[in-house]
Amino acid sequence: MNTLASNRNRAWALLFARLVLGLIFFMAGVWKVFQLGPLNHARRWFLPYANTFLPVWSLWATGVTIPFVEMIAGGLVIIGLRTRDALVALGFVLAIVTFGHLLSEPLYEFHTHVIPRLALLLFILMLPREDDRFSLDHLIQRRKPPADENHLA
Predict the structure, then answer these.
(1) Which of 9, 23, 47, 87 is the most buried (most CB within 10 A)?
(2) Burial class of residue 133, CB neighbours in 10 A (0-12, 13-18, 19+)
(3) Are the CB atoms for 32 and 41 separated by under 8 Å?
(4) In whole angstroms, what is the distance from residue 17 CA to residue 122 CA?
């Protein structure tokens, strides 16, 4: 396969991975923010850990914040804007979810929830940014004037 076709295939692969991962998080975030409600999200999924060593204020803060992180970062991943920042935020969400599940059930099975999302996240994160040609990040980068080395201080 020639380099041009390989680059094009990587661009399509990144687009589809971004769309799927972004939609998973975005739609979950939209549901948690607008249907369930951030306070109910915290009550339902985080306050059950109040009997652990975790401070209750941290459960409230995390439980109310995560739906917004999922919605905003998921949306950014879909359109390919500030993709790396959004992926890092979603990586932290996955780490928090993993910690929570393991705290309550040390042998929790992650293959249906965390692992597919993590695999897509890592796939997108590992490929070079310049291969993600169907993203706003790429469009913005292309529009930037080349750095003038004479003006660097």
Answers:
(1) 87
(2) middle
(3) yes
(4) 10
- How far apart are the C-alpha atoms of 9 and 35, rounded to whole Å? 38
Q: To which residue do tokens 């306070």 refer? A: 39
Phi and psi torsions of 109, nearest 5°: -90, 120
For the chain, percent of residues with pLDDT exceeding 90: 81
- Which candidate, 144, 103, 121, 125, places its Cα nearest to that of 22? 121
DSSP calls for 15-62: HHHHHHHHHHHHHHHHIIIIII-HHHHHHHHTGGGGGSSS-HHHHHHH
